[in-house]
Amino acid sequence: MNRFDTDLLHALGDLDDALAVLDGEFLVALNAPMQALLPGDAGGLAADWAQALQGLASALAAPLGERRRCGVSGEYLAQRVALDARHVLLRLVDDRERLHHLQRQLDDREGLLFTSRSLTVSEMGSVLAHELNQPIGATANLLRGLKLRLARRHPDSTDELAALDKAVAQIAYASQIIGRVREYTQSRQPKAERLDLGALVHQSLALLDWDLQREAVQLALRLPDAPVPVQGDAVMLQQVLINLLRNALDALRLDRPDAPLIDIELRVEAGRAELRVGDNGPGITPQTEARLFLPFSSTKPNGMGLGLSICRSLIEMHQGRLWFTRRDAGGCCFHFALPVLAAATPPTLEKTA
Ligand code: ADP
């Protein structure tokens, strides 16, 4: 080792970054942080020594001055600078701290978005619950009264009576939601009942059968034969399903394909139930996708842009996930996944003598 290298090594020893001096193909000197990271001997071939860190060999081949990432997840930044006509200094900057910090920031941001979605749900919820309770109750009473009078005066008006029944069922559903929102804003906890997701799909479709018929939408339903038990709040989960179905219906109405279709699939995989609601409507543009789950972003003339943001919050409250994909055959598909409950233990039969 010549004087230049020894002095340099001495000086490098005081620095925090991992440094090495290369002379052409040879490794001439390493400071302590570099030794700790990549042990090597002065005089050896730099290319052999560099094998110990993923991506370093190709960083050594990069033009002088250029910064290249290396390490298993790119956690080090490698840069070479010329010291003189012969010697090159290799510097490895440990970027783990900054990457951790960045990840923490992303996690915090996700947490903040979740909190703000929950706040939106709960604040909007309490205002709406308060304001809508009265008119909904009054409408339900009026409809029931109307049905009674119609049944007395025109008992043969079966179609009208059936339509009134449906209207009363819709109002009952609305008032159930309002009631549940009021309970939730007080307790801030979804209910934890044992539910069958397949049954929930049927109940939701029953509330939308009129819309499906009116829009002449074909329904493809793929549900497992066995019940799919999950723990959750029936009203909240039904709200999610109805929102997704209504969005699919809106999309098919606004931009009608030749054979409008909604396909629903429920399947169980690796302890999770995944429900998919797809449609062959116009699909979602990248611009809409970027703002899809943000509150108050809607492309509909009278849309509030709250449905998907509320749905995502409701699913997250159930330890689930809600997301969107594009369908290969056109249109889009919304998915949510929830943990499946273990099959109920069959009741033990009492032995009779
Ligand atoms: P809103 O229905 O009030 O617009 P949402 O949050 O439910 O609010 O939906 C936000 C936007 O997402 C819609 O305005 C629409 O642009 C888009 N979207 C949601 N579902 C679909 C779908 N199935 N097909 C096409 N676009 C959709």
Automatic annotation (TrEMBL):
It is an enzyme of class 2 (transferase). Its EC number is 2.7.13.3. It comes from the Bacteria. It catalyses: ATP + protein L-histidine = ADP + protein N-phospho-L-histidine. Transmembrane segments: none annotated. Keywords: ATP-binding, Kinase, Nucleotide-binding, Phosphoprotein, Transferase, Two-component regulatory system. The keyword Phosphoprotein applies. Residues 127-342 form the Histidine kinase domain. It holds the Pfam family HATPase_c. GO terms for molecular function: kinase activity. This is histidine kinase.
